[in-house]
Design goal:
34% helix; 2 domains; 7-stranded mixed β-sheet; single chain; alpha/beta; Rossmann fold; binds ligand DWN; 438 residues
Length: 438
């Protein structure tokens, strides 16, 4: 390795030891350009049609350090496409996963509600599928929050997550973690050295992976014959119904309905056994997958509902595109009106979806100066592209704004409960759809 290459690696190693955050400027992949995929990720056919285009945007978690504000930021296309063969909704372009996930600033523990939700998922499924001494593997284990809920002597745990800065945190909690992208070769290696897993969990991960066939082949080899593969992914139906277009970002390559997911699993000797709906991340399905190829009654019922909702029809997304284009005007117009009226507005949460909304609507620091976020690693940095300064939640009391723009709208119940004093003194929460929340 040449000297100049050695420096970033040394910086990386030193920062990892201190489990400090590594901002993206220190960690660039060999070829940072995106490439266009022309075949469907679920059925591999090439019947993809563009249904919504959010333009060229910076990676939504590529938060910018103050010293990097004047530097050029990478931007990549955000083109949402529908497969006319199997109904899979997906991005047309792939940004190198090394760029998006090696150094990551989303922590599962950032929301108590989410930590409880994933802890419950682990305990319930461990009780149902994992015998004493059984192995539980989590793909995309992040900071180990979910696995730590079942840290006990009679089951074996393994996390797999490419984010080196976060895997260090999981390992420090005693969760054995492989800091790599899940793949079929890694799955085969784990099966060889640790045996097959009775439970494999992947929450908000499958949609982030370009090669779904490689994942499914890995799961097929790693999953015990009586085991279960439990997946959670944001569900396409509420995504369309509520026009959750700000959840379209480069990390989210696929937007799942049961129909394409079931077809994908069947191609790998797996089947959808059970589907449950949860109010996480704007509406999420928990899909229980097992070995064997047949259509469970539960899956059939979901396929019928999706047919009735028109989730495979282009016309469904034409309506979504209309609403998205309308929001691009309405949201900045509202913020400009509030500014002219002398009202102070503060952003709440610096989620990936906030980056998308602010960049798509062209909302700079003239309309929204600052946001708060409870994630220490994000505080002091700036929103990619629009550069709002990210402050600690205490800024809400320091600034005491008239309005709070709730960029982390999917956490509304938890946030409104916490900020009841702000509401009591007349503060107002505004969703990005311009709904006022009390
Ligand atoms: O798929 C993904 C989902 C699961 O999480 C990842 N690709 C990236 C990430 O998306 P996100 O950043 O939009 O997720 P959240 O959970 O909507 O982000 C919420 C943000 O808001 C976090 O940065 C934490 C912050 N927050 C806060 O400031 N106060 C959250 C809560 C609950 C709060 O009370």
């Amino acid at each position: 390795m040449s000297t100049e290459q050695a420096q970033p690696q040394r910086a990386l190693a030193e920062r990892m030891e201190r489990s400090q955050v590594i901002t993206l400027s220190e960690f660039q992949p060999a070829d940072p350009s995106s490439w266009e995929r022309t075949s469907c990720r679920a059925c591999l056919k090439t019947d993809l049609v563009e249904v919504l285009n959010l333009g060229e945007q910076p990676p939504s978690n590529a938060f910018v350090a103050t010293e990097d504000l004047g530097k050029q930021e990478s931007r990549f296309p955000l083109s949402l496409r529908l497969c006319e063969s199997c109904g899979m909704v997906q991005l047309g372009h792939v940004v190198p996963p090394e760029l998006l996930f090696r150094s990551y600033l989303f922590f599962t523990s950032s929301s108590k509600w989410m930590a409880d939700h994933f802890g419950k998922l682990m305990t319930e499924n461990a009780a149902e599928f994992v015998p004493p001494g059984g192995l539980i593997v989590e793909i995309g284990s992040n900071d180990g929050t979910a696995l730590s809920a079942i840290q006990r002597s009679d089951v074996r745990l393994l996390g797999i997550d490419p984010a080196r800065n976060i895997s260090v945190m999981a390992a420090s909690r005693g969760i054995p973690t492989i800091a790599e992208f899940f793949s079929e070769p890694i799955a085969a290696e784990v099966a060889k050295v640790a045996g097959q897993a009775h439970l494999i969990v992947a929450c908000n991960v499958l949609g982030h992976i370009n090669n779904l066939d490689d994942v499914c082949e890995g799961v097929r080899k790693l999953l015990h014959p009586q085991g279960a593969f439990v997946i959670e992914v944001p569900y396409l139906a509420p995504f369309v119904e509520r026009n959750e277009y700000d959840t379209i970002y480069h990390e989210h390559l696929s937007y799942f309905a049961v129909r394409p997911l079931a077809a994908l699993m069947n191609r790998h000797g797996l089947h959808v056994e059970r589907v449950q709906l949860f109010p996480v991340h704007g509406g999420t399905i928990r899909v229980t997958v097992k070995h064997g190829v047949w259509r469970s009654d539960d899956a059939q019922a979901w396929l019928k509902r999706e047919e009735a909702a028109g989730l495979s029809k282009q016309s469904t997304y034409a309506r979504m595109a209309e609403l998205t284009i309308r929001n691009k005007t309405e949201l900045p117009t509202k913020l400009a009106e509030l500014k002219r009226a002398g009202k102070k507005v503060l952003g709440y949460g610096a989620p990936a979806k906030g980056t998308v909304r602010l960049n798509y609507c062209g909302i700079g620091t003239d309309l929204l100066a600052e946001v708060t976020d409870s994630t220490p690693a994000k505080q002091g940095l700036h929103i990619p592209g629009t550069h709002q300064h990210i402050r600690a939640p205490s800024a809400l009391n320091d600034i005491n704004p008239d309005y709070v723009l709730l960029l982390a709208w999917n956490h509304a119940p938890e946030i409104l409960a916490r900020e009841s004093a702000f509401i009591a003194r007349g503060g107002k929460f505004l969703t990005p759809w311009l709904e006022e929340l009390k």
